Amino acid sequence: MRVDAALQKGMVVIVAAVVVVGVCTFSLEKMLATYAVGIVGIAGILLPDWEFFHQDFPQWFAFMRARRATAAAGRSPASLRFRLYPLSSALITLIYGFGLFQWWMFVSS
Fold it and tell me: Alpha-carbon distance 93 to 19, whole Å?
């Protein structure tokens, strides 16, 4: 249910951003670009299997059954969602930073 609530809140934020961009720029192309960037951004945060990515980097390439691994480690799946790993955090920051920069350059031009 938390993912559904986060998706609904994200969609409301995207709609608000699209309206603001539309009112400020009067451009349908920029509104559509803002919507597309927002949808891709939400999909990149909410859809990945975070239990799989919240392990050491060399283990990303090995097969893993998420439920068995979390039960063996004694951790609940909810606690894995909020653990920070430097490599995955840096990679996500780099990708989203570049995407937001390109979006801003397009909208502000």
Answer: 26
